[in-house]
Amino acid sequence: MNVSRRRFIRETAAAAGFAFIPAHALGRAGRTAPSDRLNVAVIGAGGQGMQNLRELLQQPDVRIAAVCDVAEDVDYSMFYYGGRGGRNAAGDLVQQHNAGLGYTGESSRCALYSDFRRMLDREKSIDAVLVATPDHTHAVAVMAAIQRGKHVYCEKPLAHSVEETRAIMGAAQRANVATQMGNQGHSGEGIRLTVEWIQAGAIGPVREVHAWSVDFMPLRRDGRPPDPQPVPAGLDWDLWIGPAPYRPYHSAYAPFNWRYWWDFGTETIGDMGCHNMDPAFWALELGPPSTIHARSLNGDPEMTPYASIVHYRFPARGERPPVKMTWYSGLMPPRPDELEPGRDLTGEGNGILFVGDRGKIMCGGWGGSPRLIPESEMDAFERPPRTLPRSKGHHRDWIDACKGGPQASSHFGVSGPMTEAVMLGIAAIRTGKLLEWDPEAMQVTNCPEAEALIRPRFREGWTL
Predict the structure, then answer these.
(1) Is pLDDT above 70 for 23?
(2) How many other CB atoms are there within 10 angstroms of residue 105's CB atom?
(3) Final residue of a domain: which of 154, 184, 214?
(4) 151 and 17 within one domain
(5) Is 244 among the domain residues?
(6) Do residue 158 and residue 274 come from a single domain?
(7) How far is CA 444 from CA 54, 62, 291, 440, 448, in A?
(8) Residue 50 lies in a domain
(9) 153: which of 83, 119, 120, 396 is 20 to 30 A away, CA to CA?
């Protein structure tokens, strides 16, 4: 009889009462044993959710156990993300990945859901959750995961209001779970150099900061679209609305332009501010602002403005002086006199400028590399020693934290206070008033109409 060696071993083991265990289950040949894998669920498989999913699939010790999205399939080819989104697209991607690794049976399974609450209740193997939904459902999804003891990665901003931000920060601390916000530049080399240079006194005490993003803005509409549209097949619109006030479906809201409607998004400051203001919060160790004031162009109670400028005042911190920080959405700050003729602010429309008593540093967006200006100052600059731990990667650091390693650098205790400041900037844009902020009472002391923005009400059936 012509019996192969593999068949002989399998049948002999079975006869002896032993199970045949494939090499990948033992962690051999570069594979990670099941006991060492982190079982991750992804909530939100849109454009950014799919980007995060691809990052997780590159980690050898991560298994995608489940994917949740309110839509089955979404065509993103018309948007900068490109390709497909939705839970079916995510499930196909995971299945192809697992097949390529030779996984079979339970190790290859990826459950698909439309409701994250049902997923978290049913999928007991989940260790950690990545949230990449629209902004208005970040907090409810994050809190549901934390309350079940799951580690959490959440796209920026962490929440849709100050109250939500405080709630999930507190819950994460009490549950002692590993967290990370998706401001990926926080794990880069550029932001670490910026922090090291400024804290070493490269430009002296910093009293003024400008940060900006010239972001895409959709064409304006006069209020809500007058006529609702049929809900696309495979989309659970009620779940998409989540805790926000209900409104009929229209393509003006989803799958893409939700960011520019106040009920769902957080304007450019909530999107890019969490990237481009981040170096200032880290380098200057900023706490809560004392006052916030804003001006905007063509905003209204429904939609975000074409452009806005937000002025923050931060009090002194120990020996550090007070700081005036200005955020620009859709605009650029004044060009510094120190820039040579023909040279403009770095970052291609995204960046930050630090103004110190003895000089200026500009950086590109997403925590880009710093440069002293003018270039003659850069040429003469003696770099200080590198003192901060370097990152293994934004997702990698979070995974290591989930498995008992050091905290990820943008954990909620770090990213939460910045998110809170972003939400206060939005309140200033929407009220048009100078807001005086009492962080201990979590209250705007001089503007009662801001209360509804600090502590918004959820739709019936939704709660933190």
Answers:
(1) no
(2) 8
(3) 184
(4) yes
(5) no
(6) no
(7) 41, 43, 9, 11, 7
(8) yes
(9) 83
Domain presence at residue 313: yes
pLDDT in tens, 355-404: 999 999 999 999 999 999 999 999 999 999 999 999 999 999 999 999 99
Same domain, 83 and 149: yes
Query: Nearest CA to 236 among 224, 252, 251, 249?
Result: 249
Q: Are 247 and 81 in contact (CB under 8 A)?
A: no
Which residues form the domain of 146? 9-184
- pLDDT, the chain, mean: 91
pLDDT of residue 34: 64
Q: How far apart are alpha carbons 340 and 338 in whole angstroms?
A: 6
Q: What is the mean pLDDT of residues 299-327?
A: 96
The sign one gets for the Cα dihedral 11, 16, 17, 20 is negative
Averaged pLDDT, 311-316 = 98
Do 348 and 272 belong to one domain?
yes
The b-or-e profile of 346-355 (16+ CB within 10 A means b, else e) is bbeebbbbbb
> What is the arrangement of strands in the sheet containing 111-113, beginning at the earlier edge strand?
111-113, 62-68, 38-43, 128-131, 151-154, 179-181
Q: Identify the band that residue 80 occupies on the pLDDT scale cut at 50, 70 and 90.
A: confident
In whole angstroms, what is the distance from residue 37 CA to residue 123 CA?
16
The CATH number linked to 204 is 3.30.360.10
Q: What is the pLDDT of residue 7?
A: 38
Q: How many domains in the chain?
A: 2
Claim: this prediction has a pTM higher than 0.85: yes
Q: Is residue 1 part of a domain?
A: no
pLDDT tens string 408-423: 999 999 999 999 999 9
Same domain, yes or no: 202 and 140: no
Closest to 146 (Cα-Cα) out of 101, 176, 180, 106? 176
